[in-house]
């Protein structure tokens, strides 16, 4: 009886740890999604120990986003720098990796997705631009360039996400704003080629018209007449240089929120072969994963050979569909479309999809080892074996950690404005007819570029299953 009580107590404790990462941070997520950023900052401050935990990368990212939206750009960049350093210094902890094979992948440090490591530098660069610090923004551009090179070296398969068009586009915008039109042209050209190559094939996204105009303009400013003619033909338009009597506004619209990771599971049956070969099969999905497990005869009788079927948990993304799907800027009687430049939601899904086979392999090996240990102990002590079986079942979970405060999609537009205080109106529109407007005032100076980021947090309420958790 005493042993059963201990098992029940253990069950209760473990059940409490079965929540997804989103659910475990529900108080913060609720504050952030409702736009109560001061409360979101207080929640982070209250949970400062998370800055030393296994998800500290995400803690720094959330701290960076919240402080940036509050206008505390220097504090924001301190947090993003911590996240950047974490990514640079990350090393695999093999002890934690071994522990994760006996429990679940949340025992390891969250190292971050490829696109998350790029986007944090996007936020850092924008923060520096808001502070008027172009030199530091260019440092972030160089870091972005290094990370893009690392990404290209990491994946050789052209069907994988290995180049980022938006990051190159952003670098071009920053280089041009700082007066470096040569590097701006190179970055714009790289962005255009990636949009028309990888992005069109992987995400169905073409180069924005604004990028084409920027590419033509910087080719002209560099005196690259052959390039001007080549791109005029490619774009089907004639480039006409326009006099710059005032300044410019580059406006980024971070629309909605990116996806959150959740969990799904599959029951696998075990087919035993010769010489330690076992195949984990699921006929519903047509999955067959053969493993060669080097075990002795006793193990086969008491451990792996006793396996018949088991449940394995995997991560999946759940999209948070955006409410607004188009926007324009109005200034001085003219309208400027905000064009989609980065589909963060699609990139996140693509990144997880690309490594699902590896996820399957790791998860199946984890569960097989756990079940083998359970059956071996059962042969010596039935009660202890039952306890281990319960522990294994309750600790089986997927890694549902990801950066959940990034935007769903990033849009942008470039607006020429005369000198002085200028009013610009943002007009948001949804597919259901809902409209929203917001007015901004910018101090425009001749030959200078002003940057602004607007974050809309609205999504389709009925599409988010976590709202009612």
From TrEMBL:
Q: What is this protein called?
A: Tetratricopeptide repeat protein
Q: Which organism is it from?
A: Imperialibacter roseus
Could you tell me which InterPro entries the record lists for this protein?
Answer: TPR-like_helical_dom_sf
Give the signal peptide range.
Answer: 1-22
- Tell me which stretches of the chain form a coiled coil: none
Q: Which Gene3D superfamilies match?
A: Tetratricopeptide repeat domain
Alphabetical keyword list: Signal
């Amino acid at each position: 009886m005493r042993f059963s009580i201990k098992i029940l107590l253990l069950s209760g404790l473990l059940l409490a740890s079965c929540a997804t990462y989103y659910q475990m941070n529900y108080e913060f997520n609720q504050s952030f999604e409702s736009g109560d950023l001061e409360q979101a900052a207080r929640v982070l401050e209250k949970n400062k120990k998370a800055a030393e935990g296994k998800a500290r990368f995400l803690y720094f990212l959330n701290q960076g986003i919240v402080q940036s939206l509050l206008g505390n750009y220097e504090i924001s960049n301190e947090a993003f720098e911590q996240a950047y350093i974490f990514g640079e210094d990350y090393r695999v902890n093999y002890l934690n990796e071994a522990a994760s094979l006996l429990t679940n992948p949340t025992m390891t440090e969250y190292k971050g997705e490829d696109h998350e490591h790029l986007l944090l530098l996007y936020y850092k660069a924008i923060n520096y631009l808001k502070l008027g610090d172009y030199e530091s923004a260019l440092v972030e551009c160089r870091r972005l360039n290094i990370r893009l090179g690392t990404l290209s070296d990491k994946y050789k398969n052209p069907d994988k996400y290995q180049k980022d068009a938006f990051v190159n586009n952003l670098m071009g915008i920053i280089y041009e704003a700082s007066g470096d039109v040569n590097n701006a042209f190179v970055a714009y050209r790289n962005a255009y080629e990636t949009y028309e190559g990888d992005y069109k094939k992987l995400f169905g996204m073409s180069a924005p018209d604004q990028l084409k105009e920027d590419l033509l303009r910087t080719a002209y400013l560099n005196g690259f007449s052959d390039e001007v003619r080549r791109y005029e033909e490619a774009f089907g338009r004639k480039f006409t240089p326009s006099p710059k009597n005032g300044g410019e506004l580059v406006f980024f619209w971070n629309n909605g929120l990116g996806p959150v990771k959740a969990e799904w599971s599959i029951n696998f049956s075990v087919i035993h072969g010769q010489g330690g070969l076992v195949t984990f099969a699921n006929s519903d999905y047509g999955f067959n994963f053969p493993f060669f497990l080097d075990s002795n005869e006793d193990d086969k009788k008491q451990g792996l050979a006793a396996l018949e079927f088991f449940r394995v948990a995997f991560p999946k993304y759940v999209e948070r569909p955006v409410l607004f799907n188009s926007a324009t800027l109005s200034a001085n009687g003219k309208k400027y479309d905000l064009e989609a430049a980065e589909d963060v939601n699609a990139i996140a899904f693509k990144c997880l999809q690309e490594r699902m086979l590896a996820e399957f392999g790791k998860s199946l090996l984890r569960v097989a080892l756990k079940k083998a240990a359970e059956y071996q102990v059962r042969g010596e002590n039935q009660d202890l074996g039952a306890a281990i079986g319960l522990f294994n079942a309750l600790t089986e979970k997927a890694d549902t950690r990801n950066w959940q405060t990034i935007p769903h999609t990033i849009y942008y537009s470039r607006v020429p404005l005369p000198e002085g205080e200028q009013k610009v109106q943002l007009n948001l529109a949804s597919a259901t007819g809902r409209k929203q407007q917001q007015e901004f005032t910018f101090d425009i100076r001749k030959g200078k570029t002003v940057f602004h980021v607007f974050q809309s947090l609205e999504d389709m309420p009925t599409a988010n299953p976590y709202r009612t958790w």
